[in-house]
# Entry
Amino acid sequence: MKQHDTIAAIATAPGVGGVGIIRISGDRALEICTKLSNKMPKPRLAQYARFVHQGQLIDEGIILYFPNPHSFTGEDVIELQGHGGPVVMNMLLQAVIACGARQAQAGEFSQRAFLNDKIDLVQAEAIADLISSSTEQAAKAAQRSLQGDFSNKVAQILKQLIGLRVWIEAAIDFPEEEIDFLADIAQQQKMQDLHQSLKNLLAQAQQGELLNKGVMIGIVGQPNVGKSSLLNLFTRNETAIVSDIAGTTRDVVKENINIHGIPVLIIDTAGIHITEDKVEQEGIKRAKKILQQADIILQVIDSSQDTEKQKQNLSDLPFSKRKITVYNKADLLTEQQKLDDSEIHISAKTKQGFEELENKILQMINSQGDIESSFSARSRHITQLQKTLENLAIAEYNFLNNQAGELVAEDLRQAQEHLSQVTGDFTSDDLLGEIFSSFCIGK
Ligand SMILES: Nc1nc2c(ncn2[C@@H]2O[C@H](COP(=O)(O)OP(=O)(O)OP(=O)(O)O)[C@@H](O)[C@H]2O)c(=O)[nH]1
Ligand SMILES: [Mg+2]
# Structure
């Protein structure tokens, strides 16, 4: 799909830097560059130039020219590298606009790369995720998506799905052949394999989404059990006030950390108990809200007090999410009770058990195996994969129960449509607008 206007933006981060880059993409990129530099740039060669507009020297720097289709956007692309000051960059951008370009919108370069088939939607989103990744692991995962790890898996499943559709459609179109669905064990097996591959991909994508957006961990428990002390262990700082007065923490305390490269938002909350204090009541209300939003809950128990009673007091809470019960103050115990897998003894005071707790959290996040090979994903992808799986499950049910071929075919068709939306083969303009508007300008 060809875009006819030429777009331009400052591609480097706002602020002061050694070098600043203006990126121009479109049919008029070369003409604009020649007007400003009085030079005819050579493809893929760095060339020194003076950037002059209306007789005024704006800056001097380097020109890079990437002729279509071998450029990021697939169009003619020019990069003007000048001095990285916001004023000079802005003057240069205004001159580029005066010569015939228009200011690019957020994500418009990537959108053009997508529309010109240089990248698919998953890869375009991976670019934004790579730029905004907050840990090394997240950046590596985004890079793997950008290199096509996720897209290739989708393409593989799509191929399996299309193979099945072809067979079913043929069975419908040529009824005289009397293809008996149930009798065809090979097709049954293919359907089951497809189902399994899709389930695996969904699990990997869910993992990738966690790595991309980060994990929210909420610390909850009764007052004085050591929640804030635990938060401070995670942040390796005195982030929250710790005291022996019950009800010290009254508000939600949030901090961004990373656990072995996984971005984590860790949240300390007010101790949950029955109180007349209005401020504490509000704090408890907020703590309960965190319970519903967090991906993982650390339920902290003071092991030097009546542990059963504490658990009982917390039992009304909506712990629907993954939960680890943390028996804190283990240093005060002479004997430790035996615990199951989702429980752990620690001491926020001596740090005993803390590493084990971090590992438990990692296991919980990394239930799909190797973080080193996971790719980044977004909730949009998860939704589409889930919808694909739903349609496939219905198709499989109808297939195994020897229902009309048309029924199976329709669900397989819908499954294919949902799956194609992941990489953007079938995507509405509205959705594209929504996706690319979250990008930064110049990308
Ligand atoms: N011996 C021992 N004391 C601890 C441990 N963890 C916390 N404490 C003490 O327990 C008291 C309460 O700790 P906090 O971290 O403020 O507890 P909290 O759960 O945040 O309390 P609220 O904010 O009031 O709900 C403080 O005096 C801490 O020093 C531990 O592992 N061992
Ligand atoms: Mg506290």
Observations:
- The domain at 215-371 is CATH 3.40.50.300 (Rossmann fold).
